[in-house]
């Protein structure tokens, strides 16, 4: 009887951790929105609460696992944000490079053709 009181919360925590990791992994490399710190903290609080029914080393391990899951999720969220920023910076650098090449091509033209070329180039660059 006493075993079921400690085993059930442990199983619940393990299932929670598995679901938490699965959801964190699906955000990597997908267009799904990253988890916010509020969502991560909420999951952490639920995981910590599941540890309350445990005692001794089992409780300590449970709490450390909850902290580890939280830290991993935060790291995934930060990496995803930094990746998005890096992709944006790379796209801007490429666009600027294409603009410089296009400007040189437009400089070889004259009159209305040059004006039209520059207008088209600026429109494409500012997208």
TrEMBL record:
<feature type="signal peptide">
    <location>
        <begin position="1"/>
        <end position="24"/>
    </location>
</feature>
<keyword id="KW-0732">Signal</keyword>
<feature type="region of interest" description="Disordered">
    <location>
        <begin position="62"/>
        <end position="96"/>
    </location>
</feature>
<protein>
    <recommendedName>
        <fullName>Cell envelope biogenesis protein TolA</fullName>
    </recommendedName>
</protein>
